[in-house]
Amino acid sequence: MSHFTASGRFKTRHGFQEFTKTIEAPNEDVAREHVFSQVGSQHGVKRAEMELDELTEADGVEA
C-alpha cells in the first residue's frame, strides 16, 4: 500500500481550520475517502464543509 499526504481545511464556527493528514491506502481515490471520513468524524464536520487542497503520494515512508 502507498502512503498519501493530504492537506486542506474545514469550516469551523470561527472560520477555517487547516489540517494535514497522512493516510495509508491502495490508491488516491481511497485515500481521499479516508481523509474525508476521518477528519469529518474527529471534528464533526460534513464533507461539504471540507476543502481538500492537495493530495500527494508520500515518498520514502515505510510501514
UniProtKB/TrEMBL annotation:
GO molecular function: large ribosomal subunit rRNA binding
InterPro entries hit by this protein: Ribosomal_eL20 (IPR028877), Ribosomal_eL20_dom (IPR023573)
Entry protein name: Large ribosomal subunit protein eL20
NCBIfam families attached to this UniProt entry: PRK00773.1-1
Subunit structure: Part of the 50S ribosomal subunit. Binds 23S rRNA.
GO cellular component labels: ribonucleoprotein complex; ribosome
Domain of life: Archaea
Organism: Halopenitus salinus
